[in-house]
Amino acid sequence: MIRKAALLTLLTALLASPAGMAGTAAAVPAGRAAAAAAPADPLVVNEITPEVVRDAAAPVTISGTAVGAQGTSVRVVVRYAPNRPLTSRGEMAAYLSEQGYVPSNWSTRVQATPLDQAGKLPFRFTVTPQELGMSRPGVYPLAIEVTDAATGQRIAIERTFLTYAPKGEQIPKVKLALALPLVDRPHRADDATFMDDDLSASLASGRLAALLQTAQDTGDKVTWFVDPALLDDVRVLSSGARIVRGVRKEADPAAGQWLNGLRGALTGKPVVATPYADPDMTALVHHGLDKQAAASVQRGAALASEVLGREIHGTTAWPAGGRIDRDTLDELAISGVTSVLLSADALPVRAAAQDDPAAITPTPLTPDGAATLYSVADKPLTALLADPTLSEVLGGNVSAPGAALLARQRFLAETAMIAFEWQNGQPAQPGRSGQPNRTGQDGPDGSAKTPSPTVVAVPGSHLWTPDPAFVSGLLQAASSAPWLSMTSLDSVKPGRDGATRGDLAYTERDRQAELGRSHLATVRKLERKAEAVATVTAEHTDVFHAAILRLTSASWRGDAKRAASFAQRVKETIDQRITGVSVLDSPRSVAGSNGQVPVSVANNLDQDIEIRIRVTSGSKSRLAIDADDGTYVTQPTRVLAGRSQLVNVPVIVRGGGGEASISVQLLTDGDVEYGNAVRVVVRATGYTGIAVVIVGAALVIMLAAVVMRVLRRRSRRAFPFDGTTTGEGPPEDRPDAVPAERTQSP
């Protein structure tokens, strides 16, 4: 009796796990029972061996601890259903939630057993499947309940399962594909600035260290989704000095070790590149940022291949939350994506109801984990559909004592039930003649072959924090389960399970979870500025392309404050770059009714630029631009690095002149505005016409004087003073000449 009572205690602990195992802990009335309910974990299960029962006579060992107040008397009750295995996953869920399923009771009690001085009651029981009433293969419910010995009130209860799969039993094989994310939120704003130093800590002993350990412990059938932005951040962290919020820090050797360790851990394993920075694809498409969505897909695969040193494809997309709508699916298809990893409830099975043929109703069988999706692309996409329950167990928190054990038992029971469902109620499938074939595809000898369903499991969040020991233990248990066969994600193809699925389910709640409108409006503005910076240089350089993509990361969901700080830093850096090319705004002068105003552009960048200048008048009544439509636009002009370029703008002075202004806007070669327009003051006068007349008259007088002087000198040479026109040389050289009286020339 003691052995059976201990079994009851263990089973209660299994079901009360905080890892999503549907365990419950009931509050106890005031008094002595209330003291027993005080501990956070009043029931802990430490052992269930074997995890899968294969032999009806082999013992099953269950051990654990009941925890409470010192001296409190408790009793343990084991509940199970002999000869009554569960028949469906729906029945399993009802049992765990204590709604609609109550197993037959066979109770064994530990009477009025007080807890020891430490407030604990260790237990260890050994029972056989026969004692538990396991007469045929299946998944059996087990519960352990701890109650107060005096009042009979429940202190805690754990519900779990034991799977009985006797040797020699023919059970359909379930193909199991696991996909795990290796993703982190961005740590850099612009390429040169880290906004925090959290990455180093995570690589050394935090979440990323646990992810590396998990990757090293998993086999070659697990598919890893790797964010290239994370790889890039780690590479920058390890390669040299960095700036962390204005403080210079040296390279982190541990980052290089982590990156090398990851390369080794992923060798020979299937790896998929997420789009760069794991963006919120649905949000980008919904807010008109399709260009960024496509760019993230292309950049992701190329960068992952570069960092990991092997070809990594990005043709499988795993959107945030495992949900997308039709618009996003079309965008992904156009970008080269051929398959999408979704939650199975994002593409629900459609079953016709009598009153509503379009209704979505549950199916008694777990449908195959792949389906076909059609989009605007020529070829259909494959929808890889992750089982929600298995994904919840895989990605749940198993840090509490006993939680990992209960999670593993649940995972094995759920996959076993899928196999039993297909064995007992195989879906109708079309045979070669088009008639339903209840037994599946024909075998090589013409005999019926049991179909092999495929299930996919993934953690619910891309920012998953794994427990390496739990994941390793789960994979070992799955590999040894007689009904499971591990497979890689890329081998999962749409089957012929007869299930008809509805359209993609994307609700208003899903939309509300997307990145906010305000943040994406900021991203759009920064993108326009970054585009100008990229195209103003003679050789186009996407200086801020990666920074903009990091701002679209789905990790910013629910973290608007941090996202805003990253966006502000990127804005400051882009603005600083833009000011490297400037228009000198010192006042200018122009004389006359028309003329030219000089405009000077300075290039303080380290690269040559190709720039155009657009000039308009801000005071058309006083100063007009002498060009069509009053707008003067130059041809593309090259300005060398570190130099200035002067451009003369033709103007017309009106209304007597005065102080006016012109607006100078720099344009890239693609007519994208570069920076803000600059206002230049121009001082113009309309009285310069009189000045021109005066200056012209003076020039005429001076010219006349010069002509008179030249004529006078010639006349002296042509007419000698003795009245003759013969002889050689000047008159003063001739003996008969009369000296001339010398006078001042005009």
UniProtKB/TrEMBL annotation:
Q: Where is the composition biased (Polar residues)?
A: 425-440
Transmembrane ranges, per UniProt, are 687-711
Can you name the source organism? Microbispora triticiradicis
User: Where is the region Disordered?
Assistant: 425-459, 720-746
Kindly indicate where the leader peptide sits in this chain: 1-22
Q: What is this protein called?
A: Glycoprotein
Annotated keywords = Membrane, Signal, Transmembrane, Transmembrane helix
